[in-house]
Amino acid sequence: MNEAEPDELTDVEREALHEVELGVEHIHRAHGQLVSFHHSTGRAMDHLATAERLLREAGHERPANRLRDEHLPRGVLPSCGDDPSGRWSYDVLETFQSTLLDSVVTFGDRVHDRVADGRRHVAERRQEAAWKHRARSE
What we know:
Elements: H1 11-57, H2 61-71, H3 89-116, H4 122-137
Helix pairs in contact: 1-2, 1-3
């Protein structure tokens, strides 16, 4: 492990760590968007289920049956296997969490451990120190 203080890191090391941090942060943002997608899809399906019930109550069996048979059991993506209904939003979210999200976060942790002794935001800490020093010297 590099025991150096963040100021002792090279500019390239600091820049590389910053890019890793930004990559991890954007993966987290993508995760949040997938959670939102999952929730929005679920709410949409709840509305369609209500519409099915109301259409049926109003005597419109054909569109109610189409909702029940074609749209409500459908996933958001085509299936990778034999399931004709496709992959549901929770499955997409769980797959993202257990593959790319976990992998990139673990990579980011290991890189920071190896290059900066586990310290985070080394570029920002250097900038903060420079701005504080500048403010005191004027």
